[in-house]
TrEMBL record:
Keywords: DNA-binding, Repressor, Transcription, Transcription regulation
Record carries keyword Repressor: yes
Species name: Bacillus tequilensis
Pfam family for this entry, one: TetR_N
Nucleus among keywords: no
Classification via PROSITE patterns: HTH_TETR_1 (PS01081), HTH_TETR_2 (PS50977)
InterPro entries assigned: BetI_C, DNA-bd_HTH_TetR-type_CS, Homeodomain-like_sf, HTH-type_TetR-like_transc_reg, HTH_TetR, Tet_transcr_reg_TetR-rel_C_sf
Molecular function terms, GO-annotated: DNA-binding transcription factor activity; transcription cis-regulatory region binding
The protein's name: TetR family transcriptional regulator
Length: 205
């Protein structure tokens, strides 16, 4: 058992080294040799943990997903008003600090690379769209959505908004900072929700 734990820990360290190489050199620089050097390993040692470069890249890509998913799941377990919980979850999808901006840069690099390798990893199935659909349904469960809201369309609109904010936050983090992102998301959520009534008072942000 200890050896298995050490093996998995080393695989994660190699994946994180892969992220650093991608951030510094781009996907074109993410060769096995460069990754091995960044991880402090020989090529032979690297191949002990990952038999192919694609296997390593898939693992590194999924690790980005796992980190974001863990943060979101932590928020989902908290006792928060529905719209406040939704806001916090969406703020984990849009990069708002150095760590999540780096993760997003790596994710975008992976996404472009994976476009022509769908047999390896389909970046379209990253779970974000499904998660956003669930958030819209979550609002509806609490009777917070406008009565005439089309849930499919609202999920698509929110997905497009979050995707755009994520890209802009990565490209221009000074302008598109956490405060601006928060205000944009809050305003959008309020625009799709029914006006506050006595029944919904106290369940807001």
């Amino acid at each position: 058992m200890p050896k298995q734990i050490d093996h998995e820990k080393r695989r994660k360290q190699i994946a994180e080294a892969t992220w650093r190489v991608i951030l510094e050199r781009g996907m074109e620089g993410a060769s096995a040799r460069n990754i091995a050097k960044e991880a402090g390993l020989s090529l032979g040692a690297l191949r002990h943990y990952f038999s192919t470069q694609d296997e390593l890249l898939v693992f590194a890509m999924k690790l980005v997903q796992e980190k974001a998913r863990a943060r979101i799941e932590d928020i989902a377990t908290k006792d928060l008003p529905p719209k406040e919980k939704m806001l916090h979850i969406l703020l984990e999808i849009v990069p708002t600090n150095e760590e999540t901006i780096r993760e997003m840069e790596v994710w975008f690099a992976f996404t472009v690379y994976a476009r022509h390798k769908k047999d390896m990893f389909d970046a379209n199935h990253d779970g974000i769209y499904g998660g956003i659909r669930n958030l819209i349904a979550y609002l509806d469960e609490f009777d917070l959505l406008k009565q005439d809201a089309d849930k499919d369309i609202e999920a698509e609109r929110l997905y497009a908004l979050i995707d755009g904010l994520a890209l802009h936050a990565m490209l221009d983090p000074v302008r598109v900072n956490k405060d601006r992102i928060t205000r944009v998301i809050m305003q959008h959520v309020e625009s799709i929700c029914a006006e506050e009534t006595n029944e919904t008072e106290g369940r807001e942000y």
